[in-house]
Amino acid sequence: MERSRWLILVIFTCLFVFSEGREFKVKHTHHTPVYNHTLTTILVHYASAVYVSDLTELFSWTCERCDGVTEGFQMIELVVDIQNCLQAFVGVAEDLNSIVIAFRGTQENSIQNWIEDLFWKQLDIDYPGMPDAMVHHGFYHAYHNTSIRPAILNAVKRAQDYYGDINIYVTGHSMGGAMAAFCGLDLIVNCKAQKVQVTTFGQPRIGNAVFATYYSKFLPNTIRVTNGHDIVPHLPPYYYYFPQKTYHHYPTEVWLHNVGLESLIYPVEKVCDSSGEDPTCSRSVSGNSVIDHVNYFGVDLKGSAWRSCRIVMDHGLVDYGRTDAEGNFVVSREPATPVIKLNTLSAAGDNHV
Ligand SMILES: *[C@@H]1O[C@H](CO)[C@@H](O)[C@H](O)[C@H]1NC(C)=O
Ligand SMILES: *[C@@H]1O[C@H](CO)[C@@H](O)[C@H](O)[C@H]1NC(C)=O
């Protein structure tokens, strides 16, 4: 009796050691990125802060969401594309010794309408320079054909001139995740940036399998976080029986979900396989939740109110900004200048524009 229990223990120990060792090896041969929970939960706060509509509080990093793990962030550029209702920023997180770029998700009056639209998005344009890679024009143009891209690239260049070749983290939620992906690719392919890492939350699919393959070659360290039954990562739909025609996610998904054993429920962060469409991750459940879409790691990923696109700021901020002919707005600070304080802005006038 004692002897057989001993044997079972030995077998289990061997199995455990063996499987640990094997997992380690697979990770390295497939270049699965190392998933860093701490870093990801810092970045989700940036993806949340970019939803703040008071530009003065956001630019001076004094908003309610601009605290805790992101304290000390130095904003360099804040851009609001009024025509297309987009918002993004670039700054430097000294704690991370990195540039952080964040894109806001959709700010339409109804997120339900936006989600319904996602069912019908076509793969309708070729990604330049990547044969057979197709993407959806709306996601592509939101980054490439608006006032967002020139403002972002200009700010990254200024940050690099001042801080040197530091890491660049690109993040965003929902539609902002799609824009973060195009931005990361743009930095690598067109701007010859080196240390770029993309982390997105609840992003939709943006291209076909060929695009996903190119994408993961250029940005192998991308983390695409999905949450429970969040509907958006399920869209536009994936048709596995039409492999040439369907949308296809790029790797590496990290699926947040709860595992329950009777009254014991605990959260799991599952690092998924290198296919981009791991059937044992978010695809294993139905995407039927909007609630799961707007909160990741306990952090709100939406505006405090759904509002139409308008600019909210103090007159003081106007001195740092410029507006183009279409009403799009950019606020900038040179990295070498002191961080702008809220009280110096308010002193210049506190009427809302
Ligand atoms: C994870 O990221 C945090 C924050 O950037 C960093 O301090 C930590 O060293 C990282 N951990 C690993 C294992 O790389
Ligand atoms: C880019 O946007 C402008 C308007 O903002 C539009 O007229 C033009 O057709 C767009 N270009 C492409 C290639 O879609």
Q: What fraction of residues sit in β-strands?
A: 15-25%
SS-based class: alpha/beta
**Cα-atom radius of gyration:** 22 Å
Helix content: 25-40%
Question: What characterizes the major β-sheet?
Answer: 10 strands, mixed
CATH superfamily: Alpha/Beta hydrolase fold, catalytic domain
Mean pLDDT, to the nearest integer, reads: 87
Quickly give the CATH architecture.
Answer: 3-Layer(aba) Sandwich
Ligands, deduplicated: 2-acetamido-2-deoxy-beta-D-glucopyranose
Number of domains: 1
Helical run tally: 10
Strand order of the largest sheet: 10-9-8-7-6-3-2-1-14-13
**N→C terminal distance:** 82 Å
Instruction: List low-pLDDT spans.
Output: 1-29, 348-353
What does this structure look like?
This protein is an alpha/beta fold. It has a single domain, classed as Alpha/Beta hydrolase fold, catalytic domain (Rossmann fold, 3-Layer(aba) Sandwich), CATH 3.40.50.1820. The chain has ten helices and 14 strands. The protein has helices at about 1-30, 35-50, 55-60, 110-120, 135-145, 150-165, 175-190, 210-220, 315-320, 340-345, and strands spanning about 75-80, 85-95, 100-105, 125, 135, 165-175, 195-200, 225, 255-260, 265-270, 295, 300, 320-325, 330. The chain has a ten-stranded mixed sheet, sandwiched between helices. Strands 4-5 form a two-stranded antiparallel ribbon. A two-stranded antiparallel ribbon has the order 11-12. The termini are far apart. Residues about 1-30 and about 350-353 have low confidence and may be disordered. One 2-acetamido-2-deoxy-beta-D-glucopyranose binds near residues 36, 38 and 39. One of its GO terms (molecular function) is hydrolase activity. InterPro entries: AB_hydrolase_fold (IPR029058), Fungal_lipase-type (IPR002921), Sec_MonoDiacylglyc_Lipase (IPR051218). One of its GO terms (biological process) is lipid metabolic process.
